[in-house]
């Protein structure tokens, strides 16, 4: 009996070892890129109203918000913003966030409009002068143009204060002696409306050395779930042992009164 | 004699090729980022991310492989050249101890080169290793410095810094790859020279001394 010997191809052991070793980085990459959604918030910055082209001394506060689609994005976001806090989410967050951004732009434009009219009313009540309609639209467009990097209406109050400073040639910072920051919308009736992310905004203001932080005085008129801005700010300031002074304000007048008392 | 480091040399060479290729892809992505951030986010971000994660894990695997390899290479060197001036353990110390490795790392390859030069078959690799040892330490310092600067700058890192750091990484990985190839070739050549190709059989009684000489001649 004769046997036909067929030559067997032998895989070189190096190839097997390399393949096994390369499986490790490939597996890690797969795990890191599997869809897994998170929303995050992180402290941002306090920004002078001068950045929006207003000759004032106060600052508005923005925080970073967004979503990540996988563990790699979450990790790289954490690298860029170490204080970021993440909450698990689902795939719908992508659409929700896009809608929120669109709405945020509308709200921002609305609060800028209210800030100009509130400041005009405030200045007008002192000096009995009124801005012509053409100038108003021009100013509105210029401010919207300058604030395209931000969305949401929380810059309204500080913008209105800045516009009053500009019109009255006032300087609430006492020539840079105080760092005044804050958050809150400004409504058509000059009241200061509630906003989100109070915790991160306070952390941001503290990081940037703010002495005073203006928040909406909304305990009596907070229609949403959870703590009002006023209550949350007071709790966070106590919990984190913040050195800045939280100042709840109900209206633009209220805020201006405080700032003028501070600088008699 | 079979070299103890042979298989590991082949594995390390392939892994280093993969690392060089991945650092080249990262470098290309960096160029796209510098030219146009939007283009980078649309087309290169995911690829860059995948390669970044893979490179980090690959890098750790290669460090472990490299240390085992350098140990076994020194075992081979001590076998081929009994008077070789560095033991495998000392070679590990030279590569691993912080600060001391600024001397230890280039001296490992410099000594290796110096010893291989004495073997005619491995002379070329010996000279190459001695030359590469200088570039190794220079580029190691440059790439470490640049990578640290990128890390410290975070999101504020300038385009020039990002490009220089990416280029320095490709160069340093390529130097390691070349070193690995040269050491492997040098050892192979030195080992062939040291091992007789075919043992000369004892001559049978009936073979005359003249015939033997003829064969040898």
Automatic annotation (TrEMBL), chain A:
<dbReference type="InterPro" id="IPR020568">
    <property type="entry name" value="Ribosomal_Su5_D2-typ_SF"/>
</dbReference>
<protein>
    <recommendedName>
        <fullName>Lon proteolytic domain-containing protein</fullName>
    </recommendedName>
</protein>
<dbReference type="InterPro" id="IPR014721">
    <property type="entry name" value="Ribsml_uS5_D2-typ_fold_subgr"/>
</dbReference>
<feature type="transmembrane region" description="Helical">
    <location>
        <begin position="15"/>
        <end position="38"/>
    </location>
</feature>
<keyword id="KW-0472">Membrane</keyword>
<keyword id="KW-1133">Transmembrane helix</keyword>
<keyword id="KW-0812">Transmembrane</keyword>
TrEMBL record, chain B:
<keyword id="KW-1133">Transmembrane helix</keyword>
<feature type="transmembrane region" description="Helical">
    <location>
        <begin position="158"/>
        <end position="179"/>
    </location>
</feature>
<feature type="transmembrane region" description="Helical">
    <location>
        <begin position="56"/>
        <end position="75"/>
    </location>
</feature>
<feature type="transmembrane region" description="Helical">
    <location>
        <begin position="126"/>
        <end position="146"/>
    </location>
</feature>
<keyword id="KW-0812">Transmembrane</keyword>
<keyword id="KW-0472">Membrane</keyword>
<feature type="transmembrane region" description="Helical">
    <location>
        <begin position="12"/>
        <end position="35"/>
    </location>
</feature>
<protein>
    <recommendedName>
        <fullName>DUF4328 domain-containing protein</fullName>
    </recommendedName>
</protein>
């Amino acid at each position: 009996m004769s046997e036909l010997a067929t030559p067997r191809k032998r895989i070189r052991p190096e190839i097997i070892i390399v393949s096994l070793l390369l499986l490790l980085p490939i597996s890690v990459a797969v795990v890191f890129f599997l869809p897994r959604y998170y929303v995050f918030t992180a402290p941002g910055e306090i920004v002078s109203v001068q950045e929006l082209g207003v000759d004032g001394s106060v600052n508005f506060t923005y925080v970073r918000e967004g979503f990540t689609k996988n563990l790699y994005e979450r990790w790289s976001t954490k690298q860029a913003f170490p204080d970021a806090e993440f909450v698990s989410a689902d795939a719908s967050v992508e659409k929700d966030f896009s809608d929120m951004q669109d709405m945020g732009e509308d709200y921002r434009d609305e609060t800028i409009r209210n800030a100009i009219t509130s400041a005009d009313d405030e200045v007008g009540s002192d000096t009995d002068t009124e801005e012509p309609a053409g100038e108003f639209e021009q100013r509105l467009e210029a401010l919207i143009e300058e604030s395209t990097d931000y969305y949401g209406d929380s810059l309204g109050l500080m913008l209105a204060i800045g516009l009053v400073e500009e019109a009255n040639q006032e300087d609430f910072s006492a020539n840079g002696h105080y760092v005044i920051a804050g958050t809150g919308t400004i409504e058509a009736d000059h009241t200061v409306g509630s906003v989100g992310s109070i915790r991160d905004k306070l952390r941001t203001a503290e990081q940037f050395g703010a002495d005073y932080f203006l928040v909406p005085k909304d305990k009596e008129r907070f229609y949403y779930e959870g703590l009002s801005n006023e209550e949350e700010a007071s709790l966070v300031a106590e919990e984190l042992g913040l050195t800045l002074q939280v100042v709840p304000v109900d209206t633009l007048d209220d805020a201006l009164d405080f700032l003028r008392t501070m600088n008699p | 004699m079979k070299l103890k480091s042979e298989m590991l040399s082949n594995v390390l060479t392939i892994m280093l090729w993969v690392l060089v290729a991945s650092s080249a892809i990262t470098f290309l992505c960096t160029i796209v980022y510098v030219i146009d951030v939007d283009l980078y986010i649309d087309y290169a971000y995911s690829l860059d991310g995948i390669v970044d994660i893979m490179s980090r894990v690959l890098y750790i695997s290669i460090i472990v492989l490299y240390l085992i390899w350098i140990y076994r290479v020194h075992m081979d060197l001590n076998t081929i050249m009994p008077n070789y001036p560095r033991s495998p353990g000392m070679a590990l110390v030279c590569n691993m101890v912080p600060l001391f490795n600024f001397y230890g790392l280039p001296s490992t390859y410099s000594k290796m080169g110096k010893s291989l030069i004495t073997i005619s078959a491995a002379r070329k690799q010996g000279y190459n290793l001695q030359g590469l040892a200088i570039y190794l330490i220079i580029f190691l310092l440059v790439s470490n410095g640049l990578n640290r600067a990128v890390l410290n700058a975070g999101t504020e890192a300038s385009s020039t810094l990002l490009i220089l750091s990416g280029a320095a990484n490709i160069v340093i990985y390529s130097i390691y790859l070349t070193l690995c190839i040269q050491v492997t070739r040098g050892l192979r050549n030195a080992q062939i020279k040291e091992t007789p190709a075919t043992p000369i059989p004892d001559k049978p009684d009936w073979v005359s001394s003249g015939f033997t000489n003829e064969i040898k001649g």
